[in-house]
């Protein structure tokens, strides 16, 4: 397990996600101030946002002002969330793991009383001790 590579991959994924969030913010702003430009950006961005850096690079070639705006918003979002993000990720993973373990334990220990097995039914019918209890 290469922790340094995992950290790099996680950072790249987070960076792309923050680029996506910045795009959503800019689209919302443009939707109010310049709907045709918002529509253009929406169409341009369709299917390209998976890799945030490649997306920004491509947008720079077409509309550098929008690329700069998205980068500025992305940087602001990153500054706002990175302080509490590590603790939130740790806590979120711990809580999700606990929930998954609890659900798994419930599944493996759950008794299905609605349809008893044929063997259990046979035992009830042929158990002499149970027959004597009714006397």
TrEMBL record:
Transmembrane segments: none annotated. An RbcL-specific chaperone. The central cleft of the RbcX homodimer (RbcX2) binds the C-terminus of an RbcL monomer, stabilizing the C-terminus and probably preventing its reassociation with chaperonin GroEL-ES. At the same time the peripheral region of RbcX2 binds a second RbcL monomer, bridging the RbcL homodimers in the correct orientation. The RbcX2(2)-bound RbcL dimers then assemble into the RbcL8 core (RbcL8-(RbcX2)8). RbcS binding triggers the release of RbcX2. This is RuBisCO chaperone RbcX. Belongs to the RbcX family. GO terms for biological process: carbon fixation; photosynthesis; ribulose bisphosphate carboxylase complex assembly. It is found in: Carboxysome; Cytoplasm. Homodimer. Interacts with the exposed C-terminal peptide of RbcL via its central cleft, contacts a second RbcL monomer via its peripheral polar surface. SUPFAM superfamilies: RbcX-like (SSF158615). Residues 108-135 are annotated as: Disordered. Keywords: Bacterial microcompartment, Carbon dioxide fixation, Carboxysome, Chaperone, Cytoplasm, Photosynthesis. The keyword ATP-binding does not apply. GO terms for cellular component: carboxysome; cytoplasm. The keyword Endoplasmic reticulum does not apply. GO terms for molecular function: protein folding chaperone. Residues 111-120 have a biased composition (Polar residues). The homodimer has 2 functional domains, a central cleft essential for production of soluble RbcL in which the RbcL peptide binds, and a polar surface which plays a role in correct RbcL subunit arrangement. Pfam families: RbcX (PF02341).
